[in-house]
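Students often ask why inverse folding is considered easier than folding. One informal answer: many sequences map to the same fold, so there is more than one right answer. In these notes we will look at a single instance of the problem. The structure comes first.
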C-alpha cells in the first residue's frame, strides 16, 4: 500500500527457491496443503481444495501475481538457494541504499491467546547477505542467493498460539523512506529416528468394586504414518456401560516456563465435575494447572470414534486399531519444551459412558516422530 507516494515506487519483488522435488527427490517433497493447527471437517474435500501457496497469494508473503503454486517442504539438511527478481515498470527509476537478502528461523508467540499479553518472538537463526550495493534500479534484475550449511534444529510448526517458521526476506533500503520488504516462507521438516527404547504400554485401571479393566498398546512411540494397535480387557464390570470411545488429543503449551508446566500437567490427566478419572496402578493423574503465569495451554480433540457399543461382560476383549494417517489434521512430531518456549504432546483418551451419561476416562501419552518428509 502507498501513502502520499511513499510506497514501493512500482518495484516488484519476487523470491523463488530454485531447488525442487524433481531435482532433490529425497530432500524436498510436495505437500497437499499448507500445514495448519485446525481440524478438517472433510479430509477428502480439503485434500482436493486449492490452498494458497506458502509464500504466495498473500501480500508481503511471496510472489505477487505469480498465481497458485504447489506447497513444498524441505529437509533440514537442504541448503536454502534461490533467486530474487527485482522489476521496475518501464520508464521508472528508484534510488536505494543497498539491497539485502536475509534468512530467519523464528519462534513466534505473538498470535492467538498471546495477543493479550506482551508480544514476543525469538530468532534462533538470523543471517544476512548483500544482493546489491547502493545505486539505482530502472530495469529488471535477477540475482541468485544461497545460504549453506544452516543448522535447523526446529521443524516448521503452525500452532494455535505459537509458530515456528523459516523465511527469506528481501530488504530494499531507502533514504528518508521506509524499507521495502518481501518475505517467502520456507517449510522445514526434520526426519526423526525411532527411539531405542519403545516399550509397550500396559495398565490396569478401574474404580474400586465397580470397574476393573486392563488396556495395552503394542508400544509407546509411533511414526506419523503408523498404526496404533492394542486391546482392552474387562476384568470386572459392575456398572452399566453404554459405550466406549477412543480419542486422540493434542495439547499445545506455550509461554515462559513450559517445561515446568508440562511436568505439572502430567500424563494421567485429571477429572472435572462432569468427568471421572479412572484410577491407574502405574501412573497417577493430577488436576492440570494451566494458570501458571504466562503459560497458555490449548487442547484439541483431533479424532474421536466409538470402539464399543453396549454393555461388556467380564472377560470381554475389545481390539483397538487406529490409523494415524486417517486423522483429519496435520499431526506433527512430539515437541518437548522446544527452546523452553513451547511443547506439543499427544494423548490417547479412553472414555467409558454409562447409562446415566457419566463419563469415566483415562489418558495415556504417546510419542510421535517423523519417519518421512511427506
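Output (designed amino acids):
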Amino acid at each position: 500500500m502507498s501513502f502520499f507516494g511513499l510506497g514501493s515506487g512500482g518495484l516488484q519483488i519476487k523470491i523463488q527457491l530454485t531447488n525442487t522435488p524433481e531435482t532433490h527427490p529425497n530432500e524436498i517433497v510436495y505437500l497437499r496443503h499448507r500445514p495448519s493447527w485446525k481440524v478438517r471437517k472433510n479430509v477428502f474435500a480439503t485434500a482436493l481444495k486449492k490452498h494458497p501457496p506458502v509464500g504466495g497469494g498473500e501480500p508481503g508473503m511471496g510472489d505477487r501475481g505469480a498465481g497458485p503454486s504447489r506447497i513444498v517442504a524441505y529437509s533440514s539438511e537442504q541448503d536454502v538457494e534461490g533467486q530474487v527478481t527485482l522489476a521496475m515498470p518501464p520508464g521508472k527509476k528508484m534510488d536505494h541504499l543497498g539491497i539485502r537478502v536475509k534468512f530467519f528461523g523464528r519462534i513466534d508467540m505473538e498470535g492467538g491467546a498471546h495477543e493479550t499479553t506482551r508480544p514476543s518472538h525469538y530468532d534462533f537463526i538470523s543471517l544476512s547477505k548483500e544482493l546489491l550495493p547502493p545505486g539505482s534500479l530502472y530495469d529488471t534484475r535477477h540475482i541468485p542467493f544461497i545460504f549453506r550449511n544452516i543448522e535447523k534444529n526446529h521443524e516448521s510448526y503452525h500452532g494455535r498460539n505459537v509458530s515456528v517458521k523459516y523465511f527469506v526476506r528481501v530488504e530494499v533500503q531507502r533514504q528518508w523512506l521506509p524499507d521495502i520488504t518481501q518475505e517467502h516462507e520456507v517449510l522445514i521438516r526434520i526426519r526423526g529416528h525411532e527411539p531405542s527404547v519403545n516399550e509397550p504400554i500396559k495398565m490396569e485401571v478401574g474404580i474400586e468394586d465397580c470397574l476393573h479393566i486392563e488396556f495395552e498398546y503394542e508400544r509407546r512411540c509411533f511414526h506419523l504414518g503408523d498404526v496404533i494397535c492394542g486391546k482392552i480387557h474387562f476384568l470386572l464390570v459392575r456398572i452399566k456401560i453404554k459405550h466406549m470411545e477412543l480419542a486422540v488429543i493434542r495439547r499445545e503449551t506455550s509461554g515462559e516456563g513450559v517445561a515446568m508446566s508440562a511436568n505439572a500437567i502430567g500424563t494421567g490427566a485429571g477429572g472435572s465435575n462432569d468427568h471421572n478419572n479412572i484410577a491407574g496402578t502405574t501412573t497417577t493423574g493430577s488436576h492440570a494447572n494451566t494458570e501458571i503465569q504466562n503459560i497458555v495451554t490449548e487442547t484439541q480433540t483431533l479424532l474421536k470414534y466409538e470402539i464399543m457399543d453396549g454393555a461388556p461382560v467380564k472377560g470381554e476383549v475389545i481390539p483397538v486399531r487406529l490409523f494415524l494417517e486417517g486423522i483429519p489434521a496435520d499431526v506433527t512430531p512430539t515437541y518437548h519444551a522446544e527452546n523452553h518456549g513451547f511443547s506439543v504432546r499427544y494423548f490417547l483418551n479412553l472414555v467409558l459412558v454409562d447409562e446415566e451419561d457419566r463419563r469415566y476416562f483415562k489418558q495415556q501419552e504417546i510419542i510421535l516422530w517423523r519417519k518421512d518428509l511427506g
